[in-house]
Amino acid sequence: MSVRAFLGGACLLSGLFLATPEQTALAQTPSAPASSPAAAPAEPAAPPHQKWSFDGAFGQFDQASLQRGFLVYDHVCSTCHGMRSLTYNDLAGIGLSSKAISDLAHSKQFPGPVDEDGQPTTRPGTPDDHFKSPFPSEAAAAAMMGGVAPPDQSRLALIKPHGADWLYAFLTGYRMPPPPGAPMVPGKFYNEWTDGHLIGMPPPLVEGGVSFPDGTKATVDQQARDVSTFLVWAADPHRNARHHIGKGVVLYLIVLLLLAIAWKKKIWKRLDGN
Ligand code: HEC
């Protein structure tokens, strides 16, 4: 194998290992047809970039922020949004102990089997249960929430372009009262970062709305940052492990590359000598 072919292979491999699902998802998003630029709706502005510990190919989640973010999800968002892809056991990934996990699961009530009189029962959750959804069905959720069901949060951070930056901008983007001239619709709220600036979700975060056991001050800004971090983790819980593997793979490829160069030099020295 020539050094060039080897290098090409190495780049391809590291690309495969290091691409995050966001990048893969973004790469697959079809771009608008170039032929009708006038008809296309104006692209929403990109949200301001925030500094995230998990940014970049080797970034790692900050566990303290993940735990605060889960608390915000659990106390606030989960009253309206489900997160079906995660089980309580998955929370070991943000550093919760198995005791904390089973206590948490136990505190949630799930529908149980019907009893001998045919009446529905409930049972406490177990660590293997998927996160409890707040509504029994999408239709029930829509009916309760004025027509639009709150989306499941399992993959929110992946579906939205600029996932974490957008989530943070959105959660801190409510304006009350709305700017002059903005459309007013009963039951809708003005948000800078949602389509058409109107959304059926009331502003979920308030100053001091939760209290963090680690003593961090629960400003709206802090809660938005932490819950965005948690939602990115929830959409991709194995990123830390993958980034560890990624580092190993790159190191391994560099060593192979150095060996290949040394080997090539050795062979050519012999040939040149003849
Ligand atoms: C009172 C119920 C309620 C709570 C609490 C709530 N949401 Fe929502 N959320 C909704 C509803 C309803 C929608 C759909 C609204 C719509 O599309 O008009 C929604 C939509 C969203 C969207 C999609 C917005 C878009 O433009 O596509 C995101 C993101 C979101 N919620 C995040 C959160 C987060 C994070 C929390 C917790 C901090 C939270 N929500 C708490 C009801 C709620």
Automatic annotation (TrEMBL):
Protein keywords? Heme, Iron, Membrane, Metal-binding, Oxidoreductase, Signal, Transmembrane, Transmembrane helix
Per the UniProt entry, the signal peptide is 1-27
> Which residues of this UniProt protein bind heme c?
C77, C80, H81, M201
What sections of the protein cross the membrane? 245-263
**Which cofactor names does the annotation list?**
heme c
As to how many cofactors bind and how, the note says: Binds 1 heme c group covalently per subunit.
Q: What PANTHER family would the database entry show?
A: CYTOCHROME C1, CYTOCHROME C1, HEME PROTEIN, MITOCHONDRIAL
Instruction: Specify the protein name.
Output: Cytochrome c1
- Origin species: Acetobacter senegalensis
